[in-house]
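Exercise (ungraded).
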Amino acid sequence: TQLLEQSPQFLSIQEGENLTVYCNSSSVFSSLQWYRQEPGEGPVLLVTVVTGGEVKKLKRLTFQFGDARKDSSLHITAAQPGDTGLYLCAGAWYSGGGADGLTFGKGTHLIIQP
Amino acid sequence: SAVISQKPSRDICQRGTSLTIQCQVDSQVTMMFWYRQQPGQSLTLIATANQGSEATYESGFVIDKFPISRPNLTFSTLTVSNMSPEDSSIYLCSVRADTGELFFGEGSRLTVL
């Protein structure tokens, strides 16, 4: 079974601060996805990273895939209350993982206080 | 993209009863999945809903407890049988696009008393 560790599990910061969420595995990912889930909603895909060293930006969100494709990070600049939610990373491996092809991290509960 | 509608969106049920959750997709999809999300937790895959055949269950989940139907490529149901308070969760339907992206329904929040 492939394991995927996500940290921190909980994070509460003030509006305007920066933050980084991490997703790590001991195995090489074939690809990795980041989802965001708001209360009462299903997760929504933010980005998919595939290439080692890849950096993708989505407004104030910056996603980075490690050179060795074993880790990824999500950095939020100048966080706003609208960024509050559960952030999930989901990794795919060349072998193993669930039937959906993905293993989800435990998630990071992010609260941005005004 | 795919638009997924789930119902009910929430329900409160008595111990020992069963509840069936419906998932309707606005387009034909091959891969459809059911997840459970326990309070404050991440997603756990229950099973893959296979069209025209029995669902494929993940470890820890069995057909007697979570029977699944998939009569066509746009619709599936998940039944939570003989419910107990431990079954209180959000149940999510999802489909996988050709790109590998998963699209999720809004979830069905189940509370068992």
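Further reading is listed at the end of the chapter. For now, observe: The interface with chain B takes residues 31, 33, 35, 40-45, 48, 88, 90, 92, 98-102, 104-107, 109 of chain A (CB under 8 Å). Chain A has no helices and eleven strands.
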